[in-house]
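We treat protein structure as text, and this decision shapes the records that our systems exchange. The tokens are whole numbers drawn from a learned vocabulary of local backbone shapes. One such record is reproduced below, unchanged from the form in which we store it:
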Amino acid sequence: MNPLKTLHAEQDQAVWLDFVARGFVQDGGLKRLVDEDGLRGVTSNPAIFEKAIGHSDEYDDALKAAGDQRVIDLYEGLAIADIQAAADVLRPVYDASGGQDGFVSLEVSPYLALNTAETLDEARRLHKAVARDNLMVKVPATPEGIPAIRDLTADGININVTLLFAQDAYEQVANAYIEGLETFSASGGDIGRIASVASFFISRIDAAVDKLLDEKISAANDPDEKAALEGLKGKVAIANAKLAYRRYKRLFSGDRWQTLAEKGAHPQRLLWASTGVKNKAYSDVLYVEELIGPNTVNTIPPATMDAFRDHGKVRASLEEGVDEAERVLAHLAKTGIDLDAVARQLVEEGVQLFVDAADKLLGAVAGKRQKFLGTGLDRQALSLGSLDEPVKQAIETWRKDGLVRRLWQRDASVWSGADEAQWLGWLTIVEDESKKAADYAAFSSEVKQEGFTDAVVLGMGGSSLGPEVLAETYGQQPGFPRLRILDSTDPDEVRAVEAAVNLERTLFIVASKSGSTLEPNVFRDYFLGRMRDVVGPDKAGRHFVAVTDPGSAMEKAAKDDGFRHIFYGVKQIGGRYSVLSAFGLVPAAAMGLDVTAFLESARTMVRSCGSDVPPDLNPAVQLGLVLGKAATEQGRDKVTLVASKGIDTFGAWAEQLIAESTGKQGKGLIPIENEPLAAPAAYGSDRVFVYLRLDDGADAAQDAAVTALEQAGHPVVRIALASKASLPQEFFRFEIATAVAGAVLGINPFDQPDVEASKIKTRELFSAAEKDGALPAETPVAEDETFALYTDAANADALRKAGAGSDPVSWIKAQGGRIGAGDYVALLAYVTRNPEHLAVLQETRLALRDAKHVATCAEFGPRFLHSTGQAYKGGPDSGVFLQITSEAPDLAIPGRSLGFATVIAAQARGDFGVLSERGRRALRVHIKGDVAKGLDRLKSALS
């Protein structure tokens, strides 16, 4: 006769197989798990589920059919279906035993083990989802889990209590169960249908205690002491279990329990878990033979079950030697080993083991999801060279510490513990905005029906750079207006926009989160004034929409001026993280893009970077760790952005995100954008390269150059886009990556203190100029017919010592001589942004790169003030700056005493003033007359 059946019949011993039963791995599902030789229940085991998902065609088919869902949703769809199937198979056992056997057990996420409220919510949700009477929800016996056990029992939910090691903790668990029954009974519930087990982990106790005993044996000199210590090995776990069983008998007797028993209550059975023997010196059936007793459960691993079937002895062992068990634990205490402390450590380790298993499980699902998405998900590949090991270590740290989950939980301690939690609305913006897709579609139709030929975004930084990427990447859509961007106060650029459009058929999108930013306000003042001249005061407002945060000054002005629409941003999203909010979607809708499809593309990346995707499979987290560790481990803080033609303007948006987010407190990443690739020898050891490659638009020469960089040992991240349609994915990837890089750097990636300083200084200068009629006069340090040069006293002294004399060119050369290894050069040009000027600046920067082997930037002001300006002032002191200003015919601003020429001059001076205050190596070159000739001369001087 089968000993297990004999055991169950003779000792009332319900034997449960764990989820590791061979049938699961061999057959791929719980549906085939029932064992004719005495199976009485099934428990969930993420490690085995992970293997099944990894190798089962059945699960592959289910994952393919599920499509692009969150990893946790995919997993739950598989797990709950199998749990329900197992519950249905075991239902006859459940019915025949009066609801005491035949259970399936599904654990609450181990990530919630230290949170009572979330454990309660999750357990209730799982109970409802499975919807089977013979379900047990598994909850750990952590201090936070015990109140949840009580409240869930009070809800009438069957609970499998896991991770028990200490007797006192068990008593708390038993009392929580009893209290829950009393509450459920008082509410009219049928307590006779509730079952529970309390799972003691056996072998783990001996493994931990034996290790401590071995240390004491090794340190002992007395042979008798050594022998006494040796005699405790392999006995503590069983002694602990026997004394726990004695408490069980006491707790489930007496008047209090009898009152519940009369109403049909069943005792909470003790369950012996981890009963496979870890020490080969012990009998392989030790933890089965010595723990047999009435109304208990033993979850036996398959090998141990086979061994017990072969040579195990059935006897009522659990109540034998209780006095000896007391002596064992008393002796252990005298050795100085604190069993309660061991138990606390084992609970912590047990939670981590459960987390590790869950990570592997979710990783298996994430891996399959990525495989089945194929080119639907932008692919990422890392070639890191010597950076590979530091990144792997960082990935493991983020996994072990649950930092991806904590990021999504908006835990400010992921960063600096400041106000970061207030700026994470972008994490859920794709889902939030998807609910408004119909509103964007209606606006898009309205714009088309009105016959607008142009739509002009008036904004700065995050309000303009994202829309600029959309305009340049997707181009004009049939039947819709051409999208243009104005983000410069240069008078000629304002004139150029006005000259390019027909005001009567133009829609202006005024974008400003705060509503107080100088540039959008003066843009609005100018074009609203011009529109009133052209179409009249009554109709002018219908040519404008506003995108702003609720309650801003811009909202009030838009209402007062009769704007066509006001779209609202989210206060919890900073400007540079706002492209997937109204600040990007309103321009997208205006130019005729399908906002629903746009957001759906972004959602694919959101789900791929979610809290349920472990770091090693989380593309954005990987990218962020690469960027952060490149800087902190190897000084590679120059992030060089390379992109295929057609998506190359993405770099300007990413440049702002990275620089403004990370460049502060003397730390940061310096993005290098629009710098054509050269041979590997042109670069120093301070670079990391990120290559966005468009499958249907890749350039062979660019591919070859990136491959050469990899072969030379430079860290390279390759991101492959199947088409331009998947570009929205990259907005979210880079947002998460930048936040992660900020965490590695140890800064707050959501503030911009040095940008604010520049804004304040600019406002002060402009306000004073409006009062005085002009900006204050300046005295150049050197001047000729082409240039007038300006700098602060400290920089002037340093440049004179470096050879600067009366000739402006000598100052420029001296500034170039300050460039050293690991530095970067930034050309900050407050001149008209046009192809002619850009070409000369590009030639200049490349000449400097090739001569000095340093990173170079060519930026146009004032737009860079809301972008890289933060890193230049607050980031690492490795920048050498040449600010370039010029003179342009002024353009009056309606309602203001001064025009755009004064605005841009005030911005340049404010910018330079903060650079000087921060002690940066800065020189201002003011070009008199022809700007193109001045730029050529500057190039010659630097060459």
